[in-house]
Amino acid sequence: MNDSAPPSAVARYPAPAAVLELLKPITWFPPMWAFACGVVSSGVVIAEHWLVFLAGVILAGPMVCATSQAVNDWFDRHVDAINEPNRPIPSGRIPGRWGLYIAIVWTILSGLLAATLGTWVFWSAMLGLALAWAYSAPPVRLKGNGWWGNLACGMSYESLAWITGAAVMLSGALPNWHVLALAGLYGLGAHGILTLNDFKAIEGDQQMGVRSLPVQLGVQGAAWAACLFMALPQFVVVGLLVGWGRPLHAAAVAVVVAIQVGMMVRFLRDPIGRALWLSAIGVSIYVTGMMISAFAVRTLAL
Fold this sequence. Notes:
By secondary structure, the chain is an all-alpha fold. 73% of the residues lie in helices and 0% in strands. The radius of gyration is 20 Å and the shape is flat.
């Protein structure tokens, strides 16, 4: 933050538009999609629980995910002042310690909403919130190491959101092991997706001491790690679906994986130039497999 700015140049309170920008609605889609996969995998008819479903969607995106964005921007404010000075906190549009206050308030509100949705929803949300703070805040600051930071994000944005979606529809009960297995595997695969986003920031990460996988393993090593993290859990999903007597769904997911593998071969020839391409297109295909898998276990969940 620009502490040398004259008082008249800095607002005392954040404008609503700046708060919304801090909470980054564009980032809410992944956990909301995973939440929807959890809802589908529960086997419960949405129309019969639409109010609870709506509350769960709000919890996954505008609450827990938004909290993680506020926490991250507050603890990255000094770095952002160098790299992205137009962000709400370093630009002064969210003045003083308001960024921290917003992160704390959103954490509390998320916990209160989760508490109304059942025991397992509450604890799942609490774990997601704990990971959000651990990812960005010292002394833990998991984002300083790509192995742990990307795992925390994948588990929070995909696995926990999926489990929460199923638990919401099951009146707060813990989903069965079929649902938990899919949630865990797709969350693990998200580790690779998050690594793709690190290729655009290699130089800055090296300067700031952030040990992303491209920094630790080099460009080619990180590219292979990203592909393996994305692909291997999906191969396991295909095997599980076959074992669960869902051969058509398994075949559909196998096609999804095959398309991604074809894209990965091209990506590996130019990881830096094609990381965003694989992230944009390949991830859309990846999440399609998530929903196919969710439909596959609908009757198994009941």
